[in-house]
Amino acid sequence: MDISNRIRGFQASPIRRLSPYARAAKERGIKVYHLNIGQPDIKSPVEAIKAIHNYPNEIIAYGESDGDMELRKALVKYYHDNVGVDISVDDVLITTGGSEAILFSLMTLCDPGDEVIVPEPYYTNVHSFARMANVSIVSVTSLLEDNFALPPLKTIEEKITSKTRAILLNSPNNPTGHIYSPKELETILKMCEDHDIFLIVDEVYREFCYDGLSFTSILKYEQYAERVICIDSVSKRFSMCGARVGALISRNRNVIRETLKLSQARLCSPTVEQHASLAAFSAPPEYLESVKAEYEKRRNFIVKSLHSIPGVKCARPNGAFYLIARLPVEDAEDFAIFMLRDFDYKGETVMLAPAEGFYESKDLGRDQVRIAYVLNTDDLAKACTCLKEGLKAYNSRSN
Ligand SMILES: Cc1ncc(COP(=O)(O)O)c(C=O)c1O
Predict the structure, then answer these.
(1) If pLDDT is split at 50, 70 and 90, which confidence band does 398 have?
(2) Which of 236, 269, 322 has most ligand 1 atoms within 8 Å of CB, for mutation?
(3) Which member of 5, 57, 72, 293 lies 3.0 to 4.6 Å from 89 by CB, making a disulfide possible if both were Cys?
(4) What is the C-alpha separation between 135 and 35, in angstroms, rounded?
(5) Quick one: fold of 5-43+286-398?
């Protein structure tokens, strides 16, 4: 008996695949600071937690495939009030996390063998979604030295072939923290129009823009509305990652109508969690303001701390809650394993995500890690001390 060749082509998540080492470290009594995963320690809105405790129905029944109507209406209001965009409930499909919205977009836009252009490094699970949809990712490389700005448009345009169906952007970006400027977005949209392809923009971190930067949603460009899909989620906005509630938003009715077939096949997104998400949208504006301020404080802290470690380099992210750091090691995965398996500083260590798996091109990111600054500044300080001491120990060991 054999299993599929298809599954062999999938990669184990670089964010999670070192977890057995972390588990073993914890079993040895070592405290592990998790900088590997974007699981915020911020509380979800109290409104959402109360809604779960007070769930009014006696049956946890299937919901509508396109999502709870009240939640879709709440999203329409949120887009009007917070994003400055008018959409209608008919433009919204509730999905099981932003993850499903990405997968559904690829399934709807592409045939097997088609190509989607993605700037790398990119959110690593997209690799698996593309595999599920039998789509090839064609990467364009953005560089730490350029603060991960989009490469020149000519470089992107050169990658467009007769098989290209879409460009997929993520802004603010995981793993780089980069926010694409309105000018960059407009130029990309124009290029998509010239080549008659779609633009998918994953905006799940749109609330988290720092240094006074404002965010421009791709949905603002009404002229291009037909070729745009926007990916949304409550996971990061409301610290509700486990709720598994997201949305696919497009004013292209054909896209919505056809994607609904996929929604129907998976029946519905979680009903109790949609109820909780609806309540989360009623949280006062101070909730999001304070969460953003907290992440900005952490960003300032981690960038400063990393720069104080000899040999460590990172760009200054201005959004989301991740950054890519170059370490003074040859193989960041080997170092990340060392930190969990062979090292502790006063009974503590840190778990990092090797960045190689965030690149499509071979041999890029080997000396880089992705850091999620989702811990409070006290814990970040301890994690950075572990990293500094760990690098010293690792490099003296291999010399
Ligand atoms: C850029 C990006 N898009 C989508 C997702 C998936 O989000 P969700 O939890 O809504 O599926 C993540 C999760 O980390 C992400 O970083």
Answers:
(1) low
(2) 236
(3) 72
(4) 30
(5) Aspartate Aminotransferase, domain 1 (3.90.1150)
